[in-house]
Amino acid sequence: MNQAINVEQLNSALTSLRTVRSSVSLVFETLSNGLRADHGEDGKDKFLMELQELLNIVSNNLRDLEQTVNGLPIPVPFNLGNTTYLSQETTQDRQALYTQLVNSYKWTDKIHEYSSYAHTLLSQNSLKRSYINSGSTKRRGKLQSNHNVAPLQVDNVINNIDRSYNDMKITISRPFASNAVVSINLSHVLKAVVAFKGLLMEWVMVKGYGETLDLWTESRHHVFKKVTENAHAAMLHFYSPTLPELAVRSFMTWLHSYVNLFSDPCKRCGCHLHHTSLLPPAWRDFRTLEPFHDECKQ
Amino acid sequence: MGTTKTVHILHNSEQPASVFSILESGTKNIHVIADGLFDLLMMKLSQHYTSKKQTKIESKGPRFELGDFCVKLGSVTMNQNFKGILIEVEYRPCVMANAVWGLLREFLQGLLGPTVPVQPPQHLMSRMNEIYTPIDTIYQYLEHFSAYRKVTGMRNN
Q: Among residues A227, B25, B95, B103, which one has the fewest Cβ atoms lying within 10 Å of its Cβ?
């Protein structure tokens, strides 16, 4: 609404500018024509009178223009960020990038808006299967992006978690620009690597103690393949874009419960090994962190 | 040099490029893990170490993989005489005997019957909280081979 008013004011200012211009050009036109036949006998005085009149109109128009311009808000300089450098682009076919950029910006803005509406609607839905953080509705209002968090803040969150466990060692590395890749050593039981995007977890891979860690190759042991699978489920379960720190912390707490992967029997059947899969209880309940076999968890 | 000391030399098909040797010296055993050339070195040292060919003992048989378990059934022979059967069960994902013992016992009781009492091997008793290495397997084999040597005929275990 505010913007519409601005446009109106701008239009009137432009119109008055145009009037000033035309009246000024009229003055010059009259001047260049000089004395005409219709000025008659004492043409000199009449000519001067006419000129005087025209100059008065100009000064009136100028006053109008000044008034409308004063009514306009002073424009704030836009911070264009890196896009300012687009103007220095020399290749022809890239100069059109700016419009595309603005369009995509509009789109993301819209997506942001719609997704926040969707979030409100979904959090009111009582038929939800996974629990969305209902407490987050209070602190909404300004949604901030958690994909783009300062590396220092990510480091702080992860180091805090690291300090709270004695038998879980977490180290941060940044092989891919600013996004953290975190490797976790859980006692002598397992190793895990978690890839972050900002403060959101994107990928988890779990391996055995003696294996070499990397993001993409699976463990050669069945049990750790299963744990990786479950860790992916947990990652999605704890996913919470509005409270990313809580999500990371909950996930780490959950992962830490694997410290007894081999030593604790399943809570339901009481056995270490499941009779068909021959795997130890590789599932941990999200809330109670109790060990279960995949087949026993229902 | 005085006292005679025994050196056991063992090979394991799981680590085909390594030679394991264990020197018995009183209460403590010293082990050396070397590559295949160690056998040749021992031959060169035949002046100092005399080989007791007649006590060569071997456990040979099929190897199975079941999930993460590796089960080896070995028939033990000493100079072509059948002595008994050794079963080796390895659970490869875990490196700490202490953590995995309950699970292993369950597996072994499933294999041998629920009434069989299963105790951790003597060698592992002191190393339950250490990281398991291939030499620990060798020590266990040596333990059993020594027991086989002492008895004549068949041994039940």
A: B25
